[in-house]
Design brief:
Layout (H helix, E strand, L loop, with lengths): L1 E9 L5 E10 L4 E5 L6 H8 L7 E6 L2 E2 L5 H8 L2 E4 L11 H11 L4 H14 L15 H13 L5 E5 L7 H16 L3 E5 L3 H6 L4 E5 L2 E3 L1
Parallel strand pairs: 3-8, 3-9, 6-7, 7-8
Antiparallel strand pairs: 1-2, 1-4, 4-5, 9-10
Helix pairs in contact: 3-4, 3-5
């Protein structure tokens, strides 16, 4: 489903931060992404979310050559990808309801279906009483749960999650992992960046490890 071939990435003519990355992610796969700070995890996540194009190499997603696509077509492709950012990136002027509903509205879902989907997932992650609240009035953990809900509500083909359980207590973290695994069983491919060794031992999946911008075995 996703293939990176001999990828290199540099910023503004500087040295490569990713070097000769080749990686194939099959539909329905689930991988952890691990590595020390500065290893290139964020850069690889940016490539996989089509937020950044490589300096060299080839990227194929869902049968499309990403590099040759127009900007508009890349944006359409991006709608099939759910991304959970470490800094949440909720829109401060929108209510929690409207933040979670945003991907469905961008995909032109009917409003009555949006209402049902938002209420269901908000109740499941314990935010059903906060749908009219704006992000600034939510705790860090609540904002993180809202960001997760927004990323998964469309049941994307591909889910990228950057430390998604970092601000959550153990019980909620386990609940969110169950949600990711259910999505994965329904066909969503998942790449989850984490340093949480306990999480990786509890929910066993293959680990992609980056070191100095290279994938290591």
């Amino acid at each position: 489903m996703i293939k990176l071939s001999h990828i290199g990435l540099r910023y503004d003519g500087g040295p490569e931060v990713l070097t000769d990355i080749s990686l194939t992610l099959e539909q329905g796969s689930f991988h952890y992404l691990s590595g020390e700070s500065g290893s290139g995890k964020t850069s690889l996540m940016r490539l996989l979310s089509i937020a950044k194009l490589p300096s060299r190499g080839d990227v194929t997603m869902f049968g499309e050559d990403v590099i040759s696509l127009t900007r508009i077509n890349r944006a359409h492709l991006r709608q099939q990808i759910g991304v959970i950012f470490q800094d949440f990136r909720l829109l401060s002027h929108l209510s929690l309801y409207d933040n979670i509903a945003l991907p469905l509205r961008l995909s032109n879902h009917p409003e009555h279906k949006i209402k049902s989907a938002v209420k269901d997932i908000a109740n499941w992650i314990g935010l059903g009483d906060y749908l009219k609240t704006k992000p600034l009035f939510l705790s860090g953990g609540q904002q993180q749960r809202a960001a997760i809900a927004r990323a998964v509500i469309t049941k994307p083909k591909f889910l990228l999650a950057d430390e998604p359980t970092g601000n959550l207590d153990d019980d909620m973290g386990q609940k969110i992992m169950v949600l990711f695994e259910e999505l994965n069983k329904s066909g969503t491919s998942v790449v989850l960046a984490t340093h949480n060794k306990i999480l990786m031992k509890t929910f066993k999946h293959p680990v992609l490890t980056l070191k100095n911008g290279e994938l290591v075995k």
